[in-house]
Task: structure prediction
Amino acid sequence: MSHFNVTLERTRRLSASTLDFRFRRDDGETVSFEPGQFFRFTFTDDDGEFERSYSLCNYDESETPTSALDLVVSWVDGGRASKLLFSGAPNISARVTGPYGRLLIPAQLPRRLFLVATSVGIAPYMPMLARLATPLARGEVQVYFLFGARGPD
Result:
C-alpha cells in the first residue's frame, strides 16, 4: 500500500450532476493499481480533515503507466466532498492511500463476464474494459455490461 499527495489538475462535466476529476501525484511517480481497485482520499476543508474512497476511472491506455488518478463523482446534497470538489476551486489537494479492494478481473478469465453498475458505479469498470480490450477482440471473453440509471442525466 502506498501513501502520496495529489493535486487537482482538471475537471470535466459529464452531466448536470456528475464531474470527472483528474488528480496527479505531486511526486510524479506512477500510480500502481489493478483495474477495479479504489483509493482513500483525505481532503481538508474549513472544518478539518475528512476521508472519502473513490474507485479509479483511468481508462486511457495511452497514459499507462501514469501519475494521474481519474475520478467520476456525482453531486450529493449536503455532501462535504461534493461541496469541496464541485466548488471549482483550483489546485485542490489530498493525501491518498491505497490501493484497496478485490473487485478485480479474475486471473483465469471466464468465458463470460457480467458487469453491473449504476451511476458513478461505472468507474471501476472503465479500466477493466480497457484491460479486456485484447481478449475481447480475440473472442476469448464476452462481456455483458448492465447499467442502470434513474433518468437521462
Notes: The two ends are 36 Å apart (CA to CA). The beta strands are 2-15, 18-25, 38-45, 48-55, 68-74, 93-100, 112-118, 142-148. Residues 2-148 form a domain with the Elongation Factor Tu (Ef-tu); domain 3 fold (CATH 2.40.30.10).
